[in-house]
UniProtKB/TrEMBL annotation:
Gene Ontology cellular-component terms listed: cytoplasm
Source species of the chain: Penicillium angulare
GO BP: phosphatidylethanolamine biosynthetic process
Recorded metabolic or biological pathway in which this protein acts: Phospholipid metabolism; phosphatidylethanolamine biosynthesis; phosphatidylethanolamine from ethanolamine: step 1/3
Source organism, top-level taxon: Eukaryota
Name assigned to this protein: ethanolamine kinase
Family: Belongs to the choline/ethanolamine kinase family.
UniProt-recorded Gene Ontology molecular function terms: ethanolamine kinase activity
The protein's Enzyme Commission number: 2.7.1.82
Length: 412
């Protein structure tokens, strides 16, 4: 069950030497779109801006030209999305890799075409459809559609995302430098991966106080431990990795209009994914577990965690799609479902560690009105609760099982 080995290099994309400014939002966005499309200026043009507020990292604007006589669908087909990067997010995100990942996906028909880069963001085509809310993710038509689309990603895309050279495979080339107080992890396969991303984030944690220094060391030890336990190459894909979205929260899952029949049947919604800034090779089980963890929403409602039976339904739909796109024998379905079910269970707490570390950094750098510090504690708490189940310390202390772990263990 290997992955495709063809690779792609970074695209030759138009660069606009301008910036978007939140303090001068409409004017700066207007300068960008008129530089991209000079013919949008003048009579018979009516440029409008629609601000999306679902994300908690970037500024996202939909830019439309409501010319006279055009239908809403025609206006949307010409619309542009402008995504401006949040303050300091280059610490968290490799923007060159993001652009290359987007281009790769667009070449496979899995993302809208890229139009241009600018100093602090990207311009690309708009996808018509409706972003999900976190409760939508738990509805069968939508989670079955997500499962199908995610399996298509994992089955068809090369698990590197771009050409890899020996120099690019070094630890430092992945944005991670050796630290004085610890050695960075060495993964089974050199090069980009979600493990390397998490290592980069831990290195970037603040260390201004003794408490911060101790916490970073503690999280580094946890990363070393989980890599030893889980980076075993046993998952589906080449060497246990597939090209993964790694950020399938509700706002990044788009339900396409009902007239789009590319990925639908009577009881499966047509789905596409947006925002590829965290896309990187990862175990399929991580990408799946991460999406299922996002059913809780930003407020971390653990009553929404999918039970065993729901996870089996999701994984069955995923496996059918994976087998179809990989051209595998349908008789292997039961074996793959069982294997994935076990792997997803093993990875169920790693999203909490991943986004908990991420939120600790965001709490220091972000100017967005979101309580990252509290969010970090909630997500890291998921990891610690899982580890206490794993090592038996919760049972030994005769403490009540946390809600997230209780819901995960429920059959129905």
């Amino acid at each position: 069950m290997g992955s495709p080995k063809n690779q792609t290099t970074a695209p030759n994309l138009r660069y606009i030497p301008l910036s978007y400014s939140p303090a001068d939002s409409q004017s700066s966005a207007l300068r960008l779109i008129l530089t991209l499309f000079p013919d949008w200026e003048g009579p018979n043009n009516k440029i409008e801006f629609v601000r999306f507020t679902d994300g908690i990292t970037n500024t996202l604007l939909k830019i439309i030209n409501r010319k006279p006589g055009l239908t809403d669908e025609e206006v949307d087909n010409d619309a542009v999305l402008m995504r401006a990067y949040g303050n300091g997010t280059e610490i968290l995100i490799d923007r060159e890799r993001e652009t290359t990942s987007h281009a790769l996906l667009a070449s496979c028909g899995l993302a809208p075409p890229l139009l241009a880069r600018f100093k602090n963001g990207l311009l690309y085509r708009f996808i018509r459809g409706k972003p999900c809310g976190h409760e939508d993710l738990a509805t069968p038509p939508i989670y079955r559609g997500v499962a199908r689309r995610l399996a298509q990603w994992h089955a068809l895309l090369p698990n590197t995302g771009y050409s890899s050279t020996p120099a690019e495979n070094s630890t430092e080339a992945n944005g991670v430098k050796e630290e004085e107080d610890f050695e960075v992890i060495q993964t089974r396969r050199p090069g980009p991966s979600m493990w390397a991303v998490l290592q980069k984030w831990i290195v970037a944690l603040p260390v201004a106080t003794p408490e911060q220094q101790a916490r970073r060391l503690s999280l580094q030890k946890e990363l070393e431990w989980v890599v030893e336990k889980l980076d075993d190459g046993q998952g589906i894909g080449e060497d246990g990795l597939v090209f993964s979205h790694c950020d399938l929260l509700c706002a990044n899952v788009i339900v396409l209009p009902s007239d789009d029949k590319s990925n639908t049947s009577d009881d499966i919604a047509p789905i596409n994914f947006i925002d590829y800034e965290y896309a990187v090779p990862a175990p399929a089980a991580f990408d799946i577990a991460n999406h299922l963890a996002e059913w809780i929403g930003y407020d971390c409602d653990y009553n929404m965690i999918p039970t065993q039976s729901v996870r089996r339904q999701f994984l069955t739909e995923y496996t059918k799609s994976y087998i179809q796109h990989r051209g595998l024998d349908a008789s292997s379905e039961e074996e793959i479902v069982a294997r994935l079910y076990h792997d997803v269970d093993r990875f169920r707490a790693i999203p909490g560690l991943y986004w908990g570390v991420w939120a600790l950094i965001q709490a220091q750098i972000s100017q967005i009105d979101f309580d990252y510090a509290n969010y970090a504690e909630l997500r890291l708490g998921e990891y610690w609760a899982w580890k206490r189940e794993f090592d038996g310390s919760r049972q030994a202390s005769n403490e009540e099982i946390p809600l997230r772990e209780k819901r995960w263990a429920q059959e129905a």
